[in-house]
Design a protein that fits this description.
The protein is of the alpha+beta class. The protein is built from 8 helices and 9 strands. Pfam families: AHSA1, HTH_20.
C-alpha cells in the first residue's frame, strides 16, 4: 500500500503532470491534444509525463480506432483520501471547498447544458479472484452498493440477475422500484455490460461495462461508463466520483475483507 502511494505522490510531484490531470478531468485527450495545452513543452516530454502518470495508475490509456486516448483515473486519489480524511473531517472539508468554489465563481449559477456525451474510464486492483469479484459485482451487489433511489426513510433491497436480459434492480414497497441496469452482454467472469441511467433523468443514453483481468495476486477491475443526450454539467463529475467510491472503496473493502 505504501509503495503504491509513493508512486502516486511521485506522479503528482510535477506541476505539468498535475495540470495534465486537470485537463483530463474535463475530458479524455490524445497525446497530441494534450501537447497543444503546453506549447513550450515538447511532445516527447508530454509522453514522459504521461508515462509517469500511467505508472501511478492516475492515467488510463484506451485505444479508440486509430487513436489512443488518455483518461483520468481518480481511484488512487480516493485511496489517499480514505487514508487521511476521516469520516467526520470530510463534511467540514467539503463545506469549506464548496464555500471557496462559490466565492471564486462570484455567485455564478449552475445551468443545464446540452452536452453531447461523457466517457469515464477507471480501474481498481482487488486482492481476490475474478470469480469472487464478479459475484460481488452482480449477485452480491446489494451487500455493498450504497446509492439508492428509494424515497427517504423507505428501506429497499437489490437484485441482480447476471444473464443477457437480466436486471440490476432496486425494489421497495409492494410494486415500487427502479432499474439500475439492463444486462445486454455477459462473458462471466471476464465482462458484463449494462444499459442504465444511474440516477440521471430525461433524454439520456447511458451504458457501463465491467471488465475483469487476472493479475498476480488478484483482479484488475476496469470500468467504462459512457453517456450521451441532454446532460447536466455536473453529472460527469458526480458519476466519476461516485464510481471511485463504489468500486475503489465499497466494493474493494467488501471483497477483500469478506
Amino acid at each position: 500500500m505504501d509503495e503504491n502511494l509513493s508512486i502516486v505522490f511521485k506522479a503528482l510531484g510535477h506541476p505539468i503532470r498535475r495540470r495534465i490531470l486537470d485537463i483530463l478531468k474535463q475530458s479524455p485527450k490524445t497525446t497530441g491534444e494534450l501537447n497543444e495545452f503546453f506549447p513550450e513543452v515538447t511532445r516527447y516530454a508530454i509522453m514522459k509525463h504521461l508515462k509517469i502518470l500511467e505508472e501511478g495508475n492516475l492515467v488510463l490509456v484506451r485505444r479508440e480506432g486509430k487513436y489512443k486516448r488518455n483518461f483520468l483515473n481518480a481511484v488512487p486519489l480516493q485511496e489517499v483520501h480514505n487514508r487521511w480524511v476521516g469520516k467526520y473531517m470530510e463534511t467540514t472539508a467539503s463545506s469549506l471547498l464548496n464555500l471557496q468554489s462559490a466565492a471564486e465563481k462570484k455567485g455564478g449559477k449552475e445551468t443545464m447544458a446540452n452536452t453531447k456525451d461523457f466517457h469515464i474510464e477507471q480501474e481498481v486492483f482487488i486482492s481476490a479472484s475474478r470469480e469472487d469479484v464478479f459475484e460481488a459485482l452482480t449477485e452480491k451487489a446489494g451487500d455493498w452498493w450504497e446509492f439508492r433511489i428509494a424515497p427517504k426513510g423507505v428501506s429497499s433491497h437489490f437484485t441482480f440477475d447476471p444473464v443477457p436480459g437480466g436486471l440490476f434492480m432496486e425494489k421497495w414497497g409492494e410494486n415500487e422500484g427502479a432499474v439500475w441496469g439492463n444486462v445486454y452482454y455477459v462473458n462471466a467472469p471476464e465482462e458484463i455490460r449494462l444499459h442504465g441511467h444511474l440516477g440521471m433523468r430525461g433524454a439520456v443514453n447511458s451504458a457501463y461495462t465491467y471488465r475483469l483481468l487476472e493479475k498476480e495476486g488478484g483482479t484488475l477491475l476496469q470500468l467504462s461508463h459512457s453517456a450521451s443526450g441532454i446532460l447536466q454539467e455536473q453529472w460527469e463529475q458526480e458519476h466519476a466520483k461516485g464510481w471511485e467510491y463504489l468500486l475503489g472503496t465499497l466494493l474493494k473493502n467488501y471483497v477483500e475483507n469478506k
